[in-house]
DNA sequence: TCAATAGTGTCTGTTAGACATTATGGA
DNA sequence: TCCATAATGTCTAACAGACACTATTGA
């Protein structure tokens, strides 16, 4: 008898201006792995929260279901399911003893199913980023507009136009200034902002045929 | 011992210009239910295909994972998982013996978990419709542009502008005319088109802050 | 003073939506 | 003939992207 489901978490954070995922350190002669836990006892969000807390010392700021992966054909009768969850913690969150942050661009060798889980999770982050405030959850509560733009560029995988980005942000009434400024090396200090959505004006989505095809 | 996972299918089609889902007829004194099947033996897509074939006589034209629902707290140790899948069949597909199409706006009473599954599935349809050709999979292979527009309006839940819709469609090179025309009651006959995507030009997605907030 | 970064104002090409008009069938 | 629907052309307001400029700090 097999058939217990597994909850697997892809914890995401920005480290050195790159997207990174939380991994358990490899034991002697094995590979690093995503944090996981047998399903049961508590709810799925509860499992995710405890796994992220174990690996980073703090609760996730956002989480979402990413998909389901079926354990290979090894168990022909009653193949076990793995539920893949994606979660975020703010930039600057350290990894705790026995864990580390690995940039997604240079992941260490993982079990094939876990690599697929990471891909699923990143795709989910990108899918949800304009429906939910994913970018804001990857930043500390106070952030500069340049940091926010860099986060969007990281998730979208392309550069954005500074003036247009700020115009759109202003029009959406999503942030408000704290009044504090932060000096970062050379240039003029940047103002700090908070995520403070005002109103959801007609959330009318245009038809985007360019994305199909 | 509990803990076998269940695959539940929300089969979607357009019936009478409304979105409808495939249900199993209620047995004496019970409620109608979504088609489902214990996980095991075959792959998840295989299970979905056989369930849709059983209910509509044909294979689904599209399917996607919609989410996972945990069976209520009834089983504190090892609560069972339900994997919700969403699938489409073309407009005009009948329901087979023991099944029927129920418009989503006026669903009969379902188990609470199944109502949640339907909501998840519809949300998934709407999420994916501009990344994948969901609208085309809900139509027969040859369709009129008015039918296509009505399908988009159904999925988006709002009216679209005819001229703009056709302009965008033309610009995306997604369809090509068959040369046939179909007369539908009174007015001028409409030309029939096929889904024939040409090229995927820079699939650059704009930043849409309006959707957040 | 120069270099580097933050933040803003203006212009222009593109495009979504509104409106009007023509085309072509059935009643 | 009238009416209903298909299909297309033109106008306009909104907006994304480009560019240039000012502002404010550290070296």
Describe this structure in words.
Two copies of one chain form a homodimer. With 213 residues, chain A is an alpha+beta fold. The first copy, chain A, has helices spanning 44-56, 112-128, 134-137, 145-156, 162-172, and strands at 6-15, 18-24, 36-38, 62-70, 81-88, 99-103, 142-144, 175-182, 190-195. In chain A, strand 1 (6-15) and strand 2 form a beta hairpin. Mean pLDDT of chain A is 90; it is low at 74-78. At the A-B interface, strand 4 and helix 5 of A face strand 4 and helix 5 of B. Chain A binds a DNA duplex (27 and 27 nucleotides) through residues 144-146, 161-164, 166-168, 171, 183-191, 206.
Secondary-structure map:
The structure is a homodimer of 213-residue chains.
Chain A: E1 6-15, E2 18-24, E3 36-38, H1 44-56, E4 62-70, E5 81-88, E6 99-103, H2 112-128, H3 134-137, E7 142-144, H4 145-156, H5 162-172, E8 175-182, E9 190-195
Parallel strand pairs in A: 1-5
Antiparallel strand pairs in A: 1-2, 1-3, 2-6, 4-5, 7-9, 8-9
Chain A binds a DNA duplex (27 and 27 nucleotides) through helix 5.
In brief:
The structure is a homodimer of 213-residue chains. Chain A is of the alpha+beta class and 213 residues long.
Mind telling me the C-alpha Rg of chain A? 19 Å
Helix/strand-derived category of chain A reads: alpha+beta
Q: How many alpha or pi helices of chain A?
A: 5
- State the low-pLDDT regions of chain A, or none: 74-78
> Could you tell me the number of beta strands of chain A?
9
Major sheet summary line of chain A: 6 strands, mixed
Overall geometric form of chain A: globular
